[in-house]
Amino acid sequence: MSEVIVVTSGKGGVGKTTTTANLGTGLAKLDKKVVLVDTDIGLRNLDVVLGLENRIVYTIVDVIEGACRPAQAMIKDKKCDGLYLLPAAQTRDKSAVNPDQMRALVEELRKDFDYIILDCPAGIEQGFMNAIAGADRSLIVTTPEVSAVRDADRIIGLLEANNIRDNKLIVNRLNIDMMKHGNMMSADDVVEVLSIDLIGVVPYDEKIVIATNTGTPLAGDGTIVGNAYMNICRRIMGEDVPYENLDEKKGFFAKLGALFSAN
Amino acid sequence: MSQPVAIKGVKSGIVLKLDSRMDFNELLPLIKEKFSASASFFGSAGMALSIEGRPVSEAETTRIIEIIESNTSMKIGAVFTNDELLEKKFSDALKHNGISPKDPEAERRLGKLERENAALAEALKQNAVADSASAEIYIGTLRSGSSFACRGSLLLLGDVKQGAEVVAGGSIFVLGNLLGNVTAGAMGDDKAFVMALHLDPLQVRISDALAISEDKDSTQKRKRSIFNRPESDKNTPEVAVISDGHIVIKKFDRTFLNSTEFLKAFDNREDV
Questions:
Q1: Total structural domains in chain B?
Q2: Residue A255 and residue B13: Cα distance in Å, rounded?
Q3: What kind and span of H or E run contains A142?
Q4: Average pLDDT over residues B59-66
Q5: Which CATH number fits the domain that encloses residue B75?
Q6: Mean pLDDT of all residues in A170-197
Q7: Is the N end or the C end of chain A the one with fewer CB atoms within 10 Å?
Q8: Which of B31, B62, B86 lies at the terminal end of a domain, its last residue?
Q9: Beta carbons within 10 angstroms of residue A72's beta carbon
Q10: Is residue B153 part of a domain?
């Protein structure tokens, strides 16, 4: 039974691509066979975050146009067995692909993979429509900022309108200190506004910037951020994982975790 | 075409354009009319004639020549019909490129390129056929997502950024930083090469050979580079060539310029 998950946000720059790379790495480390599909044609980034940009020969557009087989275009990850990337084309644009073609491609990929994770472009135009076309469920990434939360709300509406009902929330880049001082929304503030289930909270950490720049995802490497991603992966697989305590001293998230595990 | 019969004078000949939809016998009086009207203009020189716009048989050609010679004082010294002329132009150009006419290999490559990258193949087809010793000049920087293709060699004055793509039938010279993807000898010319003032591309393809840049080393904060070489070499002009079936990087210096591989790349006499 394979699952197709779209990672989306509406707003740009909230961490869709980083999240996709880390979830792919995490699921592959949990012995799943995973393909990450970059649907951001013309502005591809997932290849760089995974450090695979020098290996791209064929792209998703070549596969869809029949210039090559999906297996020829897929790039095996350097570090993780079972993780593959289907890169986007850079010299084309979103109109090179339509939702029907994406649906057909995703169906083809289902045969070989446990998880197909689609990295959605920012916005709600054709790129978004392409990305969600074949998806069973979604992960909505947002940062605890009003602008990102508002865009996420719009996206949830569009997903529901397109019959994607299983939508889970990832609150990314949570700054614990600012939240403690009341200068930033907390994860439960965001959940309250969006009224969908939370699947994970990823704290802000400079390590993620370094990891992105060097093309090495953090999932499963023992850091706080890496653990947060691993926990999301386990929850994706259906495990009941308690929420991590991001603030050891005060135990704030223990309370928060208790709240959500009660749901 | 607006007129059923049109005459164009070129240096030492006349191009006669005929409507392909009209009956040949209807065209004859029009041809006669045209030439009688401009008889004085043509004078009594010996001329070559090219018939374009429709296929003509030998008998039809003879009749056209009769009409011209009886209505003007010109002497038609040579005749090319449309097909012959084009055929000759094509085969000459192909020979210049080091590809024999109707080379199945070249056609296969073009077909392959067409499947892989329709836009670039179209550009290659549409650009005037040029031999590898003549180059197109592109001025400006190619940024991520943009691409440029040409049939012959390419002289690019600017940078090729990561994510940009350059394809040429011949060699590629980049007077700037080459960081994107390049394909030289796209139609199968193994002797084509890629030169850049700063050569650090993600991928280089020459004919069927492919080289990719080495992976980033996350432990050492060293700049990525396609081949291991000392830092001091990176700011000197370099060239990527095929050697024993593999792409290697060499300094673009006097040694290379005097080498047989450089001279061969532009010597068309050897291949024909």
A1: 2
A2: 94
A3: strand A137-142
A4: 85
A5: 3.30.750
A6: 91
A7: N
A8: B86
A9: 11
A10: yes
Considering the domain architecture, whether residues B82 and B126 belong to the same structural domain is answered as no
- Contacts of residue A252, Cβ cutoff 8 Å, sequence gap at least 6: A180, A246
| B218 touches A at CB < 8 Å | yes
B186/B237 same-domain check = yes
Residue A219 burial (C-beta neighbours within 10 Å; 0-12, 13-18, 19+): buried
The predicted model scores a pTM of 0.69
**Pairs of CB atoms within 8 A across A/B:** 44
In a domain, B250, yes or no: yes
Q: Which CATH number goes with the domain that contains B173? A: 2.160.20.70
- Gap between the Cα atoms of A195 and B240, Å rounded: 57
Give B218's contacts in chain A (Cβ within 8 Å): 51, 214-216
**Residue contact B213–A68, C-beta within 8 A:** no
Same domain for B148 and B63: no
B92: in domain: no
What is the C-alpha separation between A43 and B34, in angstroms, rounded?
Answer: 59
What share of chain B in percent tops pLDDT 90? 24
Q: Which two tokens stand for residue B82?
A: 């449309």
Q: The complex's ipTM?
A: 0.72
Q: Which domains does chain A have, with CATH numbers?
A: 3-261 (3.40.50.300)
C-alpha closest to that of A126 among A173, A158, A168, A87: A158
* Residue B104 CA neighbour count, 13 Å, CB half: 0
Residue A195 has pLDDT above 70, yes or no: yes
* B207: alpha, beta or left? (left if phi > 0; alpha if psi -120 to 50): left
Q: Which domain holds residue B43?
A: 5-86
The answer to whether A76 contacts chain B (CB < 8 Å) is: no
Mean pLDDT of all residues in A103-123: 96
Distance CA B24, CA A165 (A): 71
Is B96 inside a domain boundary?
no
| Cβ distance of A53 and B162 shorter than 8 Å | yes
d(CA A128, CA A40): 9
In chain A, % of residues over pLDDT 70 = 93
Segment among A178-182, A248-252, B106-110 with least mean pLDDT: A248-252
Asked if B216 and A58 come within 8 Å (Cβ–Cβ), the reply is no
